[in-house]
Design a protein that fits this description.
Shape: globular
Number of helices: 4
Helix content: 10-25%
Number of strands: 9
Largest sheet: 6 strands, antiparallel
Order of helices and strands: EEEHEEEEEHHEH
Radius of gyration: 13 Å
Length: about 130
């Protein structure tokens, strides 16, 4: 069983979010393992609104295309140009290669996000 960074919160769709302001969003190692070699990302534009649980972009690999879901509701503050120019950075370290940041609506992250232990259980159950 893989371990996931304890300082992050997760969605069952394999996105992570940190608690910074603005909150950084990325995909998990489990998503990278499933997609394999990531070759392209389509991210939401700065200033655009994103809604928790709704698709806001895509991650494309040599194997498939996966929708990217926002784990939080708010306004996109910034995109990581480094991963747009070099999407393979996500393969190397998906926790350092954040995708975009969001000024979160409200004062806290949504309570339905998973902690590292709960997310690990979701990943493990999906592999059975």
């Amino acid at each position: 069983m893989s371990t996931y960074p304890e300082n992050l919160r997760y969605t069952a769709e394999h996105e992570w979010v940190d608690g910074s302001s603005p909150a950084r969003v990325g995909i998990t190692q489990a998503a990278v393992d499933e997609l394999k070699d990531i070759v392209f990302v389509d991210l939401p534009q700065p200033g655009s609104a994103v809604t928790a649980g709704k698709a806001c972009g895509e991650v494309e690999s040599v194997k498939s295309v996966a929708e990217l879901f926002s784990p939080v509701t708010g306004t996109v503050a910034e995109v990581n140009d480094g991963v747009i120019d070099s999407p393979e950075l996500i393969n190397e370290d998906p926790y350092a290669a954040w995708l975009f940041s969001v000024e979160v609506a409200g004062e806290a992250l949504p309570e339905d996000l998973l902690d590292a232990t709960a997310y690990g259980a979701v990943v493990e159950a999906s592999q059975d």
